[in-house]
Each structure stands twice: as structure tokens, then as C-alpha cells.
Write a structure and sequence with these properties.
The chain is of the alpha/beta class. About 40% of the residues lie in helices and about 15% in strands.
């Protein structure tokens, strides 16, 4: 069982079903690796060892009784943005450093019901605001491929944990690329579903019209398996859409012959790292060799996606985070002089610099006299971007390009330049603005660091992008690469 940590979620499911090992044995191995990783990666905020072993025992009993769920005994980790009953849920912030959730998010509840064993809660950028996992109150997360580099963000802890083989799969959230960008930078698979595909109930809100729960795994097949358990209508979330949930694993082996793949012209400009561009083009050639038809597509308004996002997202963040005032819950100072002092100092101490920057930006664009000039205009441009995608999907089945413009960058390199940091999501933000599904799959290395191929589908097109990613992985082995120090 020495190599169980190297196996994919799908392989582990087969092993558990065959009786090659037990859920308890598997959980113990991974908990030992998490403990050994310690401060090396700083990927975890909370490790739930006792609960994991109890869940693993229950999973073994369920399998013995013939009542195993689809994920019975399979270990996962949750981004610390999902409320988890009786477990610390911090959102990477001092504001919530002592918050123990009294209930489970729908994502947590559904994965528990499917039999998953939760090993812990992963580190993240504070309130999911960041692209490098350097804004967390609990410290930077390190990239397993190079400990001096960022794993990306905001789901950096989840991505680092999966890349370092501390867990075979993790949940994450994606507001502008926060699943797919860290997946690219760590050599993992990151899937953001269609907006409304997965319930946001119990997922602490950043930007409500953009946030979407998803997964980080090692393979597209693993992502399909997890999504099937997470997806579906939830009446507790008013943005969740009642749309049939297919078996995402059923179509993975279908051929790519005749699949129309659109290559975004704007995503291969001077902003793309030369080595990354080369690896992505080689990946596209693999798809073409499998029968896919490549054609160039034009998204004329996509260059406005970053400025549009950084008006819309901060505006929604300003509204959502107003509830953290030191009165109802969250960090609270002890010696406030009056209510105004309580509000000001509790928020001043509880929020980090990046969160404060976005709250102030959002408050400004929503203020009287600026709403029409900024927020309303951004929403109009957002619609133009969505229309560009809709027109493109009239001619193609999948839109492809790089996930991030560069491989992982050094920790600290961009913290003093927020605009440069924001541009790291330049290729992923469009899918969030349009509510479309996207997946990043490893497609090579540049200077020893992984890079990703980004695939975007039309609304409810998860089956297509998962199949495309899976068929690519059947022809390559980039997704199987493991950092040398974590084998």
C-alpha cells in the first residue's frame, strides 16, 4: 500500500471496491502525509483527523453491508470557504478565525451523503480574494513543484494538497479563475461548472453573481465523479438552477472526432509567456490528431474582462462583507468606545489589506454619482462579453487556450503590484462573467513548472469539456507527474 497516495480517486474507488485496502488504511496513510508536510506547504488550516477516521470506519461498514455510496471511503479535502458542521470555517481571515459552523454547506452535505471522507480544510486567499494564496491570515501556501513559488489562488491550499499527493481530490471555488489558475500552476485538474450547476448554500460569499463551487483533482475522470455527487438543484440557493444532472463519467470515452475546437485569437498575444504558448499549441495539436477540428474564434470584447471583473466583483464583495461588523459574528474588539468605534476597529483588524482594497473599490463604484459611470457600465460590458461567447459557440463546441499567461511566479513577486497580480486571471475571468463551465488540465512544463490547457464549454457543457480533457489525458501523461519531494 506504499503507493496509495499516488493513485487517482477513480483508481482508489476501484481498489476499495476490490477489497485491496480499507478506507481506514487509506485515511491513515494520507493523514500521516498531511502531518509530515506540516509547515512545508502550509496547505491546511484545519486537519480533521478524528472525524476522518470515524467516517472511514463508517464507510468500511457500509461497504461490508452492501450500502456503499458512489464516493464511499474516498478521501477529500474542502476549501475553508465551505461551512462544515462543528469544524472551524475561517475563509482564510482573522475575521472568522474562531468561527465554528453550526451547519454543513450543501456541497459538504452531498459529498458526505455520497460517503466521502473529509481529511481537513485547506488554506486560501482571504475571503477568496487573491491569485497567489498570499493574502491568507494563516500565511502563504507553497507550491509543491517549487517551494519558493506560489500555488496560485484563491484555492491554492486545495491545489497544493492535491499536487503534493496529500489528498486525491479537493473542493474549491472559482470567482474569476480561483480553481483553474491554481490548477494550472500546480499541475492538477481544475473544474468550474456552469453558474448555478452547484449550490452555493453554505459557501461564504465573495461575489454572488460570479462565485461557483467546483473541484480540483488529478484527472478529468475524477472531476467527473465528484461533480456528479455535488451537482443538482437546491431550493436553499436562489441562484441554483433546476437542470438535469447527467452521469458525467458515461461519455468520457467518446471520440473527439468532429469536435469543433475554437482557438481564441486574443489569448495568444504578447501577454502570453513564450514557453507556455508553445506547450498549449502542442496540446491543441494532440486534440487535432484525435480528430478535433481546430478553428480560430474572435472574442472582440474579451480584453475588457479584467477591468469589468474588478468593478463587478468588488461591488458585490462590498455588499456581501458588510455583514462582518463585529456585532452579529466575526472578529470583535473588546474595548470599543461606542458602536462606531466597534465597527471601524473590528473591521480594520479583522480584514486584510487586499480585502479592504476591494471593499473600498466596491463601495466607491456603488456610491451615488458613480454607479452609472462604473457599475452599470461594467454590467453592460459583461453582457457584451457573454454575447461574444454565445456567438462563438454557434460555430464551435469548445473554446480552448492557455489557463494562465505564465507558470507559477515567486512568492512576493507581485504583492506590491495588485494590477499585475490581477492580470494572472486574464484568460479565465471571461467564463465567470458569462457563467460558463471551464476546465484546466496539465499540458506540459516550463522551466520545471507546470502549465495548463484551458477548455471552456457552453452552458451545461461540462460533459463536453470533461470528455475533451479526458481524451487529451489518454494521449499524454502530464497529469500523472508528481513533484519529486512528495512522491
Amino acid at each position: 500500500m506504499a503507493d496509495l497516495h499516488l493513485q487517482s480517486l477513480t483508481d482508489l474507488a476501484n481498489g476499495l471496491n476490490a477489497g485491496d485496502f480499507s478506507a481506514v488504511e487509506l485515511a491513515d496513510i494520507l493523514l500521516g502525509r498531511i502531518e509530515a508536510s506540516g509547515e512545508t506547504l502550509n496547505a491546511f488550516i484545519t486537519v480533521t483527523a478524528e472525524q476522518a477516521r470515524s467516517a472511514a470506519k463508517a464507510a468500511d461498514a457500509a461497504r461490508a453491508a452492501g450500502s456503499a455510496g458512489p464516493l464511499c471511503g474516498l478521501p477529500i479535502v474542502h476549501k475553508d470557504i465551505f461551512c462544515t458542521r462543528d469544524v472551524l470555517t475561517t475563509c482564510g481571515s482573522r475575521m472568522l478565525e474562531n468561527f465554528v459552523s453550526p451547519y454543513d454547506a450543501t456541497v459538504v452535505d452531498r459529498l458526505n451523503a455520497a460517503g466521502a471522507v473529509v481529511l481537513g480544510k485547506t488554506n486560501m486567499d482571504e475571503f477568496a480574494m487573491g491569485s497567489s494564496n498570499e493574502t491568507s491570515y494563516f500565511g502563504d501556501v507553497k507550491n509543491p513543484w517549487n517551494l519558493e513559488c506560489t500555488p496560485g489562488g484563491s484555492s491554492g491550499g486545495s491545489a497544493a494538497a492535491v499536487a503534493a499527493r496529500l489528498a486525491p481530490a479537493a473542493t474549491g471555488t472559482d470567482t474569476g479563475g480561483s480553481i483553474r489558475q491554481p490548477a494550472s500552476l500546480t499541475g492538477t485538474v481544475g473544474l468550474k461548472p456552469t453558474y448555478g450547476r452547484v449550490s452555493r448554500y453554505g459557501m461564504i460569499a465573495f461575489a454572488s453573481s460570479l462565485d461557483q463551487a467546483g473541484v480540483i483533482t488529478r484527472t478529468a475522470a475524477d472531476a467527473a465523479l465528484l461533480l456528479g455527487a455535488m451537482a443538482g438543484f437546491d431550493e436553499r440557493d436562489s441562484t441554483c438552477i433546476d437542470h438535469p444532472v447527467p452521469d458525467y463519467t458515461a461519455s468520457l470515452d467518446q471520440s473527439l472526432k468532429g469536435l469543433r475546437v475554437g482557438i481564441v485569437r486574443q489569448h495568444f498575444d504578447e501577454g502570453l509567456d513564450e514557453g507556455t504558448g508553445k506547450q498549449v499549441r502542442e496540446a491543441l495539436a494532440v486534440l487535432e490528431a484525435q480528430g478535433a477540428i481546430l478553428t480560430e474564434v474572435d472574442l472582440p470584447h474579451i480584453d475588457y474582462s479584467v477591468p469589468t471583473y474588478y468593478v463587478v466583483a468588488p461591488a458585490e464583495c462590498s455588499s456581501n462583507l458588510s455583514r462582518f461588523d463585529g456585532v452579529r459574528f466575526g472578529h470583535r474588539v473588546d474595548d470599543a468606545e461606542d458602536l462606531f468605534d466597534l465597527y471601524c476597529r473590528s473591521r480594520g483588524e479583522g480584514f486584510g489589506e487586499e480585502v479592504k482594497r476591494r471593499i473600498m473599490t466596491g463601495t466607491y463604484v456603488l456610491s451615488a454619482g458613480y454607479y452609472d459611470a462604473y457599475y452599470l457600465k461594467a454590467q453592460q460590458v459583461r453582457q457584451l462579453i457573454a454575447d461574444d461567447f454565445r456567438k462563438a459557440f454557434a460555430d464551435v463546441d469548445v473554446i480552448a487556450g492557455p489557463t494562465a499567461p505564465t507558470p507559477a511566479f515567486k512568492l512576493g513577486d507581485k504583492t506590491d503590484d495588485p494590477i499585475t497580480m490581477y492580470l494572472n486571471d486574464i484568460y479565465t475571468i471571461g467564463a465567470n462573467l458569462a457563467g460558463l463551465p471551464g476546465i484546466s488540465t496539465p499540458c506540459g512544463f516550463v522551466d520545471g513548472l507546470p502549465v495548463g490547457l484551458h477548455l471552456v464549454g457552453p452552458h451545461w457543457g461540462e460533459e463536453t469539456i470533461l470528455r475533451c480533457a479526458h481524451q487529451y489525458q489518454m494521449q499524454t501523461d502530464w497529469h500523472a507527474a508528481c513533484p519529486e519531494d512528495f512522491r
